[in-house]
Design a protein that fits this description.
The protein has 114 residues and is of the alpha/beta class. It is 41% helix and 33% strand. It has a single domain, classed as Transcription Regulator spoIIAA (2-Layer Sandwich), CATH 3.30.750. The protein has four helices and five strands. Strands 1-2-3-4-5 form a five-stranded mixed beta sheet, with helices on both faces. Helix 1 (23-38) links the parallel strand 2 and strand 3 (43-54). The termini are far apart.
């Protein structure tokens, strides 16, 4: 699992994940990922385009990230999940916790007015 901070602006940060979010990989990136989210309390966009699988611990990681952002009114947006990952997230009802965006235009709509 690779994790990187792609870019930041005053109101939006993009983080990218790559690989499989299963037990071993989640434990490996949990602390730095959540620290990056906590350091940017506005909107955090998580690029999932190179993520191949999300286990329950991966979803828990996203819920923990959401909980860090919610008190300050921040948003968590999952960006370009693969069809498999999107299906996993939707099947688990994660769209009620965070937004899922397919395009930059979708992100702009979700963040309008910030």
């Amino acid at each position: 699992m690779n994790f990187r901070h792609v870019n930041s602006s005053p109101d939006r940060t993009t983080l990218a994940l790559e690989g499989s979010l299963d037990f071993t990989q989640v434990e490996e990136i949990k602390a730095p990922f959540l620290a990056a989210v906590a350091a940017h309390p506005g909107t955090v966009v998580v690029d999932l385009s190179l993520v191949t699988f999300v286990a329950s611990l991966g979803m828990r990681l996203f819920i923990d990230a959401y909980k860090l952002l919610a008190p300050s009114g921040g948003k968590l947006i999952m960006f370009q999940p693969s069809p498999t990952v999107r299906k996993i997230l939707l099947h688990a009802g994660m769209e009620s916790v965070f937004s899922i965006a397919e395009t930059e235009e979708d992100v702009a709509i979700l963040t309008a007015g910030e």
